């Protein structure tokens, strides 16, 4: 990693402008190598610089990030910088065929963007096929003036905790097979903490150190845990036995300090939590990640736990022979614990930071969920007359373009790549919590976007439907954060919901786990010109259509020219 000092210093009200912005430069060599986990035969995985998780990008607010991606893997790939706004660097956002054509095997692309106006924990991941299962890493954005700029007591130490999912099979093959046959994706074989499954998995021949992550701590110290769910299809509960947390941020947005002994983090989300090491130092403690499965009926998932070990410095040797203290985890289906955590967070309102817009220009009511549709020609391994899984938003099941990215078509004003008719409401109103009988025929495969003028304040009610299953879909918006005004179960009712809107300190996020069989209301100001996909952050649902995109027109700022090395289809 290279770090060069520059002389740029944008004045931001919420940070002291005491340090110079720097350029942080990385080279990501994406390639395949063989890994064996769970005592299974080695499988080929794709990863950056042969590391799982991949390298962490450490920056300060206001820095410029330059990442040279060399694709030495056999697959098409792109990298997305999850949660980074990409203001003025729209060509660097990364989702395949939304922003850019993929980087072909043997080719390179340099992503350049700024970490301006954002602080906290974000992450990067592949946005092609299901490769993000192993192509991912953390992004840590510290305040411009360093740790003294935190709006909470400075921790003694910081630790990145990346939760993940592991398949014994090659994930590219797995995703391709699910798509071609139109069947649900196989559940993961294990969950992981910093790439390792931990001791709860049967693995008689395994090397303990290689499969269990260990966090060595000092007694009576404060640790800032930067927890990222890099899992592909599974929200997680997270606990450390004998310890409690104070949540101070989520999705790189500061929160009112929130005390809890369990953290809930859906794929795409991050949580920053302070943990004081005040437990008996002679014992060791399990850090545990367990699946939160909200789907009813449930398609099946791995009922297992990922564990790591928290060990105190100076603990007697005998403690290593005792089994670590286990955390009591919520039931896998405990939606009330999940909802309590996810709906109780509020923003820490700081001077100079954006606040929730009170007036709305465009209101949308968007149903999200699974459904069925006829097998498509490109799904070559299902019967043409067969009904397969499809997911949709307002019954539009999103299909990525194949010839040109949405952003490029928008920029070059090319027609035929997408249409501007994404509906503001579903074609049929019904009791969304129950499966209707005649829904199949009105779900269409299409590439519809919602076009909004620069600076439009958009409100979206996201309503989960029960067509195949009630399920909490983690909805992620690119290019913007949104405020979460309210969440609830059942059908959204404007009359009662409006009274519950938090217009004082609503949490700000880039990914929201919409309550299963419920709804959520989000608001954002579309002041970032470009093409921004909003989609379910389960890789089981994105390729089958749980997505749409916002086309934000130019305003005082406009899209820049694409970079010279921009990948071509
Ligand atoms: Cu989903």
Automatic annotation (TrEMBL):
Q: Which is a GO BP term held by this UniProt record?
A: lignin catabolic process
Instruction: Tell me the compartments it is located in.
Output: Secreted, Extracellular space, Apoplast
| Keywords associated with the record | Apoplast, Copper, Lignin degradation, Metal-binding, Oxidoreductase, Repeat, Secreted, Signal
Describe how the cofactor binds.
Binds 4 Cu cations per monomer.
Which CDD domains does this one have? CuRO_1_LCC_plant, CuRO_2_LCC_plant, CuRO_3_LCC_plant
Which Enzyme Commission number(s) are listed? 1.10.3.2
What PROSITE patterns does the annotation carry? MULTICOPPER_OXIDASE1, MULTICOPPER_OXIDASE2, PROKAR_LIPOPROTEIN
Q: What are the Plastocyanin-like domain coordinates in residue numbering?
A: 32-145, 159-315, 421-554
Membrane-crossing segments per the record: none
Highest taxon, organism lineage: Eukaryota
Q: Where is the signal peptide?
A: 1-21
Job of this protein? Lignin degradation and detoxification of lignin-derived products.
Query: Know the name of this protein?
Result: Laccase
Q: What species is given as this protein's source?
A: Eleusine coracana subsp. coracana
Q: What is the lineage of its organism?
A: Eukaryota, Viridiplantae, Streptophyta, Embryophyta, Tracheophyta
